[in-house]
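Appendix B. One record, verbatim.
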Amino acid sequence: MDIYNTLIGLLLLVVSFAPFVILTASGAKKSKKIKQEIEAVAKKCYGTIVEFGRVNNLAFAIDAHNNYFYIKKENNIKTYRLSNYTSCNYYEDRQRKGNGKNRTEILVNCGLELIAKSGLNLKVECYSITKKIQPSGEYEFAQKWSKLIQDRL
């Protein structure tokens, strides 16, 4: 009787933890693939990726040698020379809903804004409420990368 209870308990543990293990492994595999894609683009410019980060379908990378900033959004990789920008700021737009005690603030969008020396500023949206209802790491990701890029400028 105790053997059956032990087997059932082990089976329940395996079944309950298996999805977490599978999701973690697939996320790591996806990050590695995206990093390899960005490194392939960087190698064309004789660069090396020193900083890399990914959240959902958005990835950032920095090449310290050539001072490039790489953005992979969906299936496009774009390259920007950091020497063309003076600073990097984190931005967010919030919307207030309700009134009185029921007043709440909702994050509408957030991202990075690179201020150009001349020409147009670069605005990279990390999160938008129109594309996704709830942020899942984009807020912290944008704040972290604004500091990393600002340190490089």
